[in-house]
Every structure is written in C-alpha cells, then in structure tokens.
C-alpha cells in the first residue's frame, strides 16, 4: 500500500499557494478543492481520498469573513457524520479490522480527545429526545460495528468544532459567556454516528460543555422534513432518478466486467456482489490504509476500485445533467430550508434564541440541499462535510440582513442559484437575506415547472 501512503501525502501535505487573505485566486471558480493540488483530469483515487477527509494539516476556511461593519447574528450548521465503518461487507471476505475505541496515542489525534472521552463517559444522565437517550455517546468497540463512527470520525468533528469556535465565539462573540440552552438548536437522526459526530463538534466548539444545556432533538427522516415528509411527487422524482442510475450502469461494460471478476474472486454470483455495494467497504480499506481483501482465487485490487469509483463520478456528472435529482432535491430540501429561514427571520427581529443551529446528518441530507441551492460544482459530501449558513446585520443599516453560504470552508454564496448574479448588479459583499427567503418561498417551486406556488401543491401535483 506504499502508493496509497504517497497519495495521502500528496493530497494533504503539499504546500498550497494562496492569494491575498489566504484565499486561492481560483476559489471563486471551483468550489472544492484547492486548484494547486487538484489533478488536471478526474482521478478516482484522488477523489476517494478527498472523500476520506483524513485529518492532517489545519485547513483554511472562509467562515466568519465579512466587512468590519457587519455583525454576525446567527449560524446554521449542517454536517455529515465523520468517518465510519462500512454499512456493507464484501461477501465471503474478512471484515476490515478497525478499532473503534478512542486511543490517545493513535493517529489521527486531537488535543481534546481524552477530555472528550472523559466528558462523554460521565454524560449518561444527559436527557435527549427519545430514542436518542439509548444511544452510546462515543464509539467504543475493539472491532468496529457496522456503520460505527471511528476515531478518525471523532477527530474530524473535534477539528470542525475547534475551527468554528475560533471564528464564531472567539472572534465574533456569537454566544455570550453565560450562554443558555435555548441559544442552541440541536437535531440529529437516530444513528449513533450522527449523535456522536454532533457531540464531538459541540465539544470542540463550546467553551464550557455543560450537559444541562445540551439537548438533542431526534429527527426520524434523513431529509429532516419533520412533519412535512409526505411528498408523492418527490418520491416519483427519486424513482426516475434511480431508473436513470440503473440504465447508466447497464451501459458500462467495463463496470460489469469488474463486478464479474470480483464476484469470481469472492465466489458469489455477480448480482450478490453488486447488491453488497462493495464500494462502501473498499472506501473504508482505502481511508484506513488497509489492504483490499484476498481469497484463494486472487485479490480485489486498486484497478477494481478505480473502475467502480470512476463510474460513481460519471454517475454524479450525468445526474447533474439530467435534472431528475434536482427535482427530488428541491422538494426534499424545502422543509429544512424553510425551517432555517424561519430561524433567521426570528433572529432579525432581535430574538436571542437558537443563535447556533446544528443538524447532524448524512450524505443523503447534505446532497439534496447542495443540489437545491444550485451548487452544481460541489463535490459529493465527504466524511465530516460542513455546510454553513451565516446571517449578518449591517451595523450602518440595521434593518438590512445578509446571508453567506459556505461549504467545507469555501464561500459558495455567489455560486447559488438565488445569488449567482447578485455581485454583478450590486457592490454589496454579501447576499441579501430576502434573496434566500424568496428562493425558498417561491423560486424553488418555479424551478420545478408547473403552477405550484407552495410545498403541499408541488408535492401533490397531478400528471407529473
């Protein structure tokens, strides 16, 4: 696996040239990652290592950047859980041996790791919305369980929390020193990996992690749609999108050949291997620098991985072109975006509750939100991805509020469909809040076509 180690060093440790303010001169064109280290053509192994998001050198970030006369009012953070053990195994192979206990002298490490474990082990009295109170507060199995957060996943979010703390609390004083429980809004799905990721981020973020002030609400849906989850038209878009995926796969003879070769190696029918979603397990081997599995019939190898990953990249490209996923995303993301602008509007009225909102979620949460916002260049959410909405007030015109959208530390505000032309027409450095409100209340439905002007009608449109 020496090649892998070299690639990891290449992706994470090459010094990056930056322009003024530490921002790459090309960052307005490309959302991710840094142009200096990015290969000229899409390299499947490079893409996979970006997805792993292995903690190494501290990353630059653009969160909290604003002209001095702007005041930060509220922050809304959407995260994908950190690195996890696979959800699927390659049939008839040994599971990758990864330790899910948290150990101080093992890489990756964070200075707050021991304190985090100590704090979590005392937190069993914390009251969360059911069924969250039955979940473990940190990973703790010598051999990871399926889908369990790893030490890498915990460190990724301790790092995210520390970064946001330095910007939002130390620099911008978003929360007062005597902050109270009602100034946070915390919500997670019912998986241990999302609850633990949220706790790790909060532990890195809060100056004083007081269990009495931490209350996570449970969200049963990965779309965070709360009471607005029933949406037949959204499901129809999803079915059509899945059909598109299936047809693309059928056209890829190299992919079928690769699945056939791998199925022979592990001695199962090709259909069974495909259903086991081998890419999930293979990514885990790659992210943790563990050799791919071997049997007496041979070894699964890097060439197999490259073919499957290349198809995944091609699928994402076609997905953007065909727009079926966009229809699914607009309806899938509407409830959570509607909730977010509601919070922002209350903050503009001077309300001091829910100044910091955290949604601890999945790739299938972030991906539709990115798509709905029009961020077509954004890469698929990596482990511990963060999407942040900042609300700002102009101190010189206190009635004027603006928003910034950041994805993994990069300002993508002017890549969004609701603000991509704003900076051409206006000298203002940020996007007016009303642009986002208009987008969520009206333009999302316009983008779907048809005559619907609200979420319910769009979800129940006849003749789609």
UniProtKB/TrEMBL annotation:
Chief localisation class: Golgi
Annotated compartments: Golgi apparatus membrane
Domain of life where this protein originates: Eukaryota
UniProt keyword terms in alphabetical order: Glycoprotein, Golgi apparatus, Hydrolase, Membrane, Signal, Signal-anchor, Transmembrane, Transmembrane helix
Gene3D superfamilies cross-referenced by the UniProt entry: Phosphoglycerate mutase-like
Function of the protein: Responsible for the 2-O-dephosphorylation of xylose in the glycosaminoglycan-protein linkage region of proteoglycans thereby regulating the amount of mature glycosaminoglycan (GAG) chains. Sulfated glycosaminoglycans (GAGs), including heparan sulfate and chondroitin sulfate, are synthesized on the so-called common GAG-protein linkage region (GlcUAbeta1-3Galbeta1-3Galbeta1-4Xylbeta1-O-Ser) of core proteins, which is formed by the stepwise addition of monosaccharide residues by the respective specific glycosyltransferases.
Name of protein: 2-phosphoxylose phosphatase 1
């Amino acid at each position: 696996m020496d090649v892998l180690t070299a690639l990891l060093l290449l992706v994470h440790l090459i010094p990056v040239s930056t322009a003024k303010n530490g921002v790459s001169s090309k960052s307005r064109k490309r959302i991710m990652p840094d142009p200096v280290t990015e290969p000229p053509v899409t390299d499947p192994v490079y893409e996979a290592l970006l997805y792993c998001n292995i903690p190494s050198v501290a990353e630059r970030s653009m969160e909290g950047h604003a002209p001095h006369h702007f005041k930060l009012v509220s922050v809304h953070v959407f995260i994908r859980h950190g690195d996890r053990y696979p959800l699927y195994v390659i049939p008839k192979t040994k599971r990758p041996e990864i330790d899910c206990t948290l150990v101080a002298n093992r890489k990756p490490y964070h200075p707050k790791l021991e304190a985090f474990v100590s704090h979590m082990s005392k937190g069993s009295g914390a009251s969360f919305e059911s069924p969250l109170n039955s979940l473990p507060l940190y990973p703790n199995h010598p051999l990871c369980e399926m889908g369990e957060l790893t030490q890498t996943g915990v460190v990724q979010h301790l790092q995210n929390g520390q970064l946001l703390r330095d910007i939002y609390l130390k620099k911008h004083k978003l929360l007062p020193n005597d902050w109270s429980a009602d100034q946070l809004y915390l919500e997670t799905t019912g998986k241990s990996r999302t609850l633990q990721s949220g706790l790790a981020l909060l532990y890195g973020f809060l100056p004083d992690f007081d269990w009495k002030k931490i209350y996570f609400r449970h969200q049963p849906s990965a779309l965070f749609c709360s009471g607005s989850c029933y949406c037949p038209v959204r499901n129809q878009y999803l079915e059509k999108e899945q059909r598109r995926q299936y047809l693309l796969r059928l056209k890829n003879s190299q992919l079928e050949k690769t699945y056939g070769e791998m199925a022979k190696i592990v001695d199962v029918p090709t259909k069974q291997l495909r259903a086991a979603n081998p890419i999930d397990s293979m990514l885990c081997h790659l992210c943790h620098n563990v050799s791919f599995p071997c049997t007496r019939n041979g070894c699964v190898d890097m060439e197999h991985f490259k073919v499957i990953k290349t198809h995944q990249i091609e699928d994402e490209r076609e997905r953007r072109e065909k727009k079926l996923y966009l229809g699914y995303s607009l309806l899938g993301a509407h409830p959570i975006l509607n909730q977010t602008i509601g919070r922002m509007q209350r903050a503009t009225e001077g309300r001091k509750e829910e100044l910091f909102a955290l949604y601890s979620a999945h790739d299938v949460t972030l991906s539709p939100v990115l798509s709905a916002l029009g961020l077509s260049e954004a890469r698929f959410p990596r482990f511990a991805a963060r999407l942040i909405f900042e609300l700002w007030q102009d101190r010189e015109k206190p009635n004027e509020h603006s928003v910034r959208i950041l994805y993994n530390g990069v300002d993508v505000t002017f890549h969004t469909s609701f603000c991509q032309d704003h900076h051409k027409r206006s000298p203002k450095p940020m996007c007016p809040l009303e642009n986002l409100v208009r987008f969520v209340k009206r333009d999302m439905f316009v983008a779907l076509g048809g005559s619907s002007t609200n979420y319910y009608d769009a979800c129940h449109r006849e003749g789609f």
